[in-house]
Design brief:
The complex is a heterodimer. By secondary structure, chain A is mainly β. In chain A, about 0% of the residues lie in helices and about 50% in strands. Chain B is mainly beta. Chain B has a six-stranded mixed sheet with strand order 2-10-9-4-5-6, with no helix packed on it. In chain B, strands 1-3-8-7 form a four-stranded antiparallel sheet, with no helix packed on it. In chain B, strand 4 and strand 5 form a beta hairpin. The chains are: A mainly beta, B mainly beta.
């Protein structure tokens, strides 16, 4: 099984900050990685697919990148609506696996 | 508007069974892989099972193999998860989601399954 190691588990930041979340795959997943945002009590929402493609309707302050088996989600200027938990997920092979999540909190 | 609505959750005793349903609307259900994902209280997301468009291919996480069965009825735009021999660690919110091959989107609102005596 492919393990997805996400860091940090918690991140404290202020409105306007640049935020970076990292996800490392235990083996190659090509670019088959998605990022989701989940707010308390709600279903996850797809933000990024195939490592760097912005889902329709998602603000352009969100971006994704990759370097080998390391993937990054960046929020260029954190907005009040962005305080949530973020998950990465590989869809290269079964079983599909998620990272442990990163909670973005208000500093 | 693409929409998924889960139902069938509830309280069940250890060893019991439940059948979850997911009703799809606003898109061509039969064209997509479909998936169940769960989230235990206060925990992260866990992929549970996926099913191919025509039902001929199915995948499961190891912890549910032999106990859970994913199925679909394309004529009724519905996805199902039959859960048998339930355990306390199956307690979670269960989400159905569409798999268009670029991550999961959309997701349903989730249905809570509680396994407790």
């Amino acid at each position: 099984d492919i393990q997805m190691t996400q860091s940090p588990s918690t991140l404290s930041a202020s409105v306007g900050d640049r935020v970076t979340i990292t996800c490392r795959a235990s083996q190659s997943i090509s670019s088959w990685l998605a990022w989701y945002q989940q707010k308390s009590g709600k279903a996850p929402k797809l933000l990024i697919y195939k490592a760097s493609n912005l889902e329709s309707g998602v603000p352009s302050r969100f971006s994704g990148s990759e370097s080998g088996t390391e993937f990054t989600l960046t929020i260029s200027s954190l907005q009040p609506d962005d305080f949530a938990t973020y998950y990465c997920q590989q869809y290269n092979s079964y079983p599909r696996t998620f990272g442990q999540g990163t909670k973005v909190e208000i500093k | 508007e693409e929409q998924l609505v889960e139902s069938g959750g509830g309280l069940v005793q250890p060893g019991g069974s439940l059948r979850l349903s997911c009703a799809a609307s606003g898109f061509t259900f039969s064209s997509y892989w479909m998936t169940w994902v769960r989230q235990a209280p206060g925990k992260g997301l866990e992929w549970v099972a996926s099913i191919k468009q025509d039902g001929s291919g199915k995948y499961y996480v190891d912890s549910v193999k032999g106990r859970f069965t994913i199925s679909r009825d394309n004529a009724k735009n519905s996805l199902f998860l039959q859960m048998n021999n339930l355990r306390a660690d199956d307690t979670a919110v269960y989400y159905c989601a569409t798999d268009p091959g670029r991550g999961y989107d959309p997701w349903g609102q989730g249905t809570l399954v509680t396994v407790s005596s």
